[in-house]
Amino acid sequence: LLLDDLFAKLDTERGNAIFDLIKKSGQTIITNTDLAGAENHGINTNNPNNKSIHLSREWKS
């Protein structure tokens, strides 16, 4: 399951409802621009079952 920029599109109540559903599914990939948004919705980024990958790009003038 791939959920793109989930936290920008849902309020806390709806986000929590989605998490209740995806906890029962297999692998889920969530893209996000703000790690705090994931943590505010109850995703434990320190859980060894969860993987967080930070991507960045340096812009050259």
Low-confidence stretches: none
Largest sheet: 2 strands, parallel
Tell me what portion of residues adopts beta-strand conformation. Answer: 5-15%
- Morphology: globular
Radius of gyration: 13 Å
- Average pLDDT: 80
**Structural class label:** mainly alpha
Tally the beta strands.
Answer: 2
Helix content: 25-40%
Counted by DSSP, the helix tally is 3
Q: In a nutshell, what does this entry contain?
A:
By secondary structure, the protein is mainly alpha-helical.
Structure description:
The chain is mainly α and 61 residues long. The chain has a domain at 2-40. The protein contains 3 helices and 2 strands, in the order E-H-H-E-H. The chain has a two-stranded parallel ribbon with strand order 1-2. The longest helix is centred in the first third of the chain and has 11 residues, at 12-22. The protein is globular.
